[in-house]
Structures are given as structure tokens and as C-alpha cells.
UniProtKB/TrEMBL annotation:
Protein name: Two-component system response regulator
Taxonomic lineage of the native organism: Bacteria, Pseudomonadati, Pseudomonadota, Alphaproteobacteria, Sphingomonadales
PTM sites of type 4-aspartylphosphate: D52
Species per Swiss-Prot/TrEMBL record: Novosphingobium colocasiae
Phosphoprotein is among the record's keywords: yes
Gene3D superfamilies the UniProt entry points to: 3.40.50.2300, Winged helix-like DNA-binding domain superfamily/Winged helix DNA-binding domain
UniProt GO molecular function: RNA binding
Superkingdom, taxonomy of origin: Bacteria
Keywords (A to Z) from UniProt: Phosphoprotein
Pfam families: ANTAR
Response regulatory domain location: 2-116
Domain ANTAR, residue spans: 122-183
Length: 192
């Protein structure tokens, strides 16, 4: 497992490193500079990112939230103090685990495990949502094509669907592909 530790304080970073000593086959990368952080993380390509921010200002938090939004990997963020606004912003930024005053070596592994599990669970939810939205969009396109066939040919809905299905089978395409062609043709002909 490749783990990037982001911390401007080497002393605080060593606490995280101590907590990771029990991990087998773990490659650690400690980043102490904020400048060019996103590109350096990209070069490292870690499996998880741990950010220890101590007591950051609003500007520093926003900067790290921007980094979080750009990364598609589990992120655990450690801070000394927090408020509801910072917690909400961290969730919006994609932080998997936001830990307030929890910097102890013995807590690092469970926090990483939680961050990874939450990241994967959230990723699955996003994937399911995208799939559902795609199916809904396909269904809407098929319904538009059926309405076009029903209005232009004066056929009932079951017959319009049967025509779409028959054309798809004859052309070796999906029904939605045939439906998109009908909707596009209708739009180009200026009737829709």
C-alpha cells in the first residue's frame, strides 16, 4: 500500500509514521511542502492520503479541500479543532475521514481502514447513481422515440415499441441507439 502523508510538521508526521509501523508492505511518502502538492501526489500515486493539518486557517483548509476534490482516492484528514462548517466542507470535498483531535499512533490504522471503506462505499453509490441516471436518460429517449412513431404513424404504444425493438434487432444495435437516431432525425427535420 502506498500512503502519502501530508504534514508541514515533521514531528506530527512521525506520529502517523509510528502508527503505520504495523502495516506490512507499506510504502510511505511524507510531503511537507504545500507548493505543487497536487502534482507531487499525482507522481506518487498513493492508495490513500493522510493529511495532518493541526490547527489550520480557513485559507489553508480551503486549499486542502481543493486538493481533496481533485483526488479520486481515500483521504483521512486530521485537525486539532473543528466546527460544523469545516466538517461540511470536508464532506463536500470528498474527505473520507475527518478526525478531530485524534492524533495517536494506535488510532491511525482503524482510521485508515474506515477511510478506505467509506471511500469505496461512496464510490459504489456514485457508480450506482450514474448507472441509474443513464438508464433513466435511455428510458426517456426511448419514450420520445415511441411518441414520435405514435404521432407520425398513428400507432399504439406497444406497436411503436415493437417497431423500435425490431429495427434494433435487424441492425444489431441497442433499442436506445435506434431511439436516439429517431429523435435526432425528428429534431433535424424541424418537427420536434
Amino acid at each position: 500500500m502506498r500512503i502519502a502523508i501530508i504534514d508541514e510538521s515533521a514531528a506530527r508526521a512521525s506520529i502517523i509514521q509510528e502508527g503505520l509501523a504495523t502495516f506490512d508492505d507499506c510504502e510511505l511518502f511524507v510531503l511537507t511542502e504545500r507548493r505543487g502538492l497536487l502534482s507531487r501526489i499525482g507522481e506518487i500515486n498513493p492508495d490513500i492520503v493522510l493529511m495532518d493539518l493541526g490547527n489550520p486557517s480557513r485559507d489553508v483548509l480551503e486549499e486542502y479541500f481543493a486538493v481533496s476534490r481533485a483526488l479520486a482516492r481515500p483521504i483521512a484528514m486530521f485537525v486539532d479543532e473543528s466546527d460544523d462548517e469545516a466538517i461540511a466542507a470536508s464532506v463536500d470535498a470528498g474527505v473520507s475521514s475527518y478526525v478531530v483531535d485524534g492524533m495517536a499512533p494506535g488510532r491511525i490504522r482503524p482510521i485508515i481502514d474506515l477511510a478506505v471503506r467509506r471511500f469505496h462505499a461512496f464510490s459504489r453509490l456514485q457508480q450506482d447513481l450514474a448507472e441509474a441516471q443513464g438508464k433513466l436518460a435511455e428510458r426517456e429517449t426511448i419514450d420520445k422515440a415511441k411518441r414520435i412513431l405514435m404521432e407520425s404513424r398513428g400507432m399504439p404504444e406497444p406497436k411503436a415499441y415493437a417497431e423500435l425493438r425490431k429495427a434494433a434487432m435487424n441492425q444489431g444495435k441497442r433499442i436506445v441507439d435506434i431511439a436516439e437516431a429517431i429523435v435526432t432525425a425528428q429534431r433535424l427535420l424541424g418537427d420536434g
